[in-house]
Amino acid sequence: MLSFLEDKDNRTQQAGLTRMRTYATTLLAFVTAIFAFAVWGLETWPWLAPVKAFAEAALVGGVADWFAVTALFRRPFGLPIPHTAVIPRNHGRIAAAIGRFVADNLLASQALAQCLEELDTAGRLGRWLGQPDTRPMIAARIAGSLPPIVYTIGEERWRDAIGGGLRKVVDTAITGPRMAHILSYIVGRGYHHAIMDYLVTEARSFVAQNRPFIHKKVAKECPEWLPLWVETQIAQGVSHGIDGSLAELTSHDHPWRRKFEMFLHETIDGMAHAPFFAQRIEDVKRQVLGDPAVDDYLQQIGASAYAHLMGGAETVETVIEGALREISRRLEHDPAMRASLNRWLRDAAEALLVPRRELIGSLITDLVMRWRTAVLIEKLENHVGKDLQYIRINGTVVGGLVGLVIYAVTSLVRH
Questions:
Q1: Distance of alpha carbon 226 from its chain centroid, rounded?
Q2: Cα separation of 135 and 384, whole Å?
Q3: Which three-class secondary structure state does DSSP give residue 90?
């Protein structure tokens, strides 16, 4: 697909260059014909003198700019004229300059970060996945390639691979320092307040829904001689008291919240540095991952995934397309997710590219050096040649106008 797009772009550029070169050459031929006609008919029609001056200067300007443009890429008429074929003679210097430019400018940390920030990769991805034809195409290709691969692996090895992969993910991801980092991120951005608010809301809802149960428990603890209406008043007081205490927790200045935050900071410090925490986490992981029921469950996940993948491309395609649709929707309507993904891509690109920018620059230099000189000329001429043909056109027109001005000034001085 990429090669097709590049070929199409090259053809478009080549067509534009050919069109502008034809315009410039036609204009040069036109002023040449005017100059020849003016020289031929000057004695008969003296009024052709300014026309001759214009055409003569335009011809000189057009030829000079044709020579200058041509000399960049090749020798005019194949003649060994000094300081022509500038690009072929400086192939190595151009390759080194391109490599240095990419390494020192495009891959510099600040420039790369700014470029990636402006690019909005996540937004572009969301819009691309949001196109009606994109999701079915991607889903069909993935769904068509997965079953043969999974079948080649085999069901038993697939189940073992799924189970082993999940075990490895859990074993690698859940460590003391990693858990401390995650918890520190949550606390540092104030998300623990949102968690507390959610727990308080759920607790108040639980109390409201279970008032009869609370009344029953309170009545059971009250003395038998106590009147029923007194038991009811006590039960209602307990319910209201619990609800009121929970309502007070919604204030971020509540002492319990500060104690909760202190507890989280102590936990973070312990997870990051205390051997006891690390050992406790490892013990829990061994207990969980060593449980036969967990092993059976992981095997079931692997078997279920194998059955779904081998159950037919249509089922897999539907699942993949649904996942892509959800990703597209989230990227389009969730600015926080979009910003987070952009930040992750930017950090990943910086971490991957910036430390290796000298290597990348040298690879680009080597790539350009490996191009045949004819290929380098073709690429450069396709990209800038169209603008250079404008220079030829401008040189012809401006040269003619300058010649006309010189003729006018000379005529005024003579008279």
A1: 72
A2: 37
A3: coil
Q: What pTM did the predictor assign?
A: 0.43
Regarding whether 304 and 206 lie in a shared domain, the answer is yes
Tens digits of per-residue pLDDT, 163-197? 776 777 777 767 777 777 777 877 777 777 777 77
Pair 160, 75 in one domain: no
List, as own/partner pairs, every contact residues 328-336 make where C-beta atoms lie below 8 angstroms and the sequence separation is at least 24, other chains included: 328/126, 328/129, 328/130, 328/135, 329/130, 330/126, 331/122, 331/123, 331/125, 331/126, 331/129, 332/126, 332/127, 332/130
Could you give the angle at the alpha carbon of 401 between the alpha carbons of 398 and 405, nearest 5°? 135
Packed helices 373-414 and 91-101: angle between N→C axes, nearest 10 degrees? 100
In angstroms, what CA-CA distances link 12 with 20, 304, 338, 381, 383?
Answer: 12, 50, 34, 13, 10
- Within a domain: 177: yes
Domain count, the chain: 2
Q: How would DSSP label each residue in 382-408?
A: HHHHHHHHHHHHHHHHHHHHHHHHHHH
51, part of any domain: yes
Strand, helix or coil for residue 210: coil
Indicate whether 235 and 159 sit together in one domain.
Answer: yes
Verify that 33 and 177 share a domain, yes or no: no
pLDDT of residue 301: 73
